[in-house]
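Support reply, case 0932

Customer input (verbatim):
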Amino acid sequence: MRPFSGEPESGDLAVIESCAEVTLVAAIDGLGHGPEAATAARMAAKVIEEGIGEGVTALVERCHRALDQTRGASISLATIDAGHNTMTWVAIGNVEGRLVERRRPSRAIFPAAGVAGVELPQLQPETLGLRRGSTLIFTSDGVQSSFSDSLAASGSPQQVADRILGEHGRSTDDALVLVVRYLRVTE
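Our regenerated output:
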């Protein structure tokens, strides 16, 4: 992640929490940039970190209530269930998500219009099957959406994130790239 040029902290945050066979992954983009955006992102992150085991819709609803006195935040959230080799994801606002797998077209999450803490639309989570090597990528709006036009998930998750941020990060906003690779053997 990278803060907006000249700002001391980023309003974009990533959360990864695991418990038993469930891993919770979230990308949070506090509206705007600077300290107020960072405050909203930290509040959402705290709610999400404390909510492992809850469904993605319930977590976004809890974030919405917690952020009602802030600028609000865009959130993409996924729970990965290693026991069932599935991922359930949901998004609100402008944090983009892609699931990339070898020999399959990438899948995009379709975020609901709105902002947690400001306007919460009806959420429609989607559950997808995962295979060994499935790669989840979340990016904030500080990353050009064209990153997915030439998406290559080869290399380590850190290398993929660094490549996307380096090639597609905008200097006019906070930027976050979160990459998670599923390694559970499913065959």
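We compared this against your earlier run and they match. Two observations from our side: The mean pLDDT is 91. The domain at 12-181 is CATH 3.60.40.10 (Phosphatase 2c; domain 1). Please reopen the case if you see a mismatch on your end.
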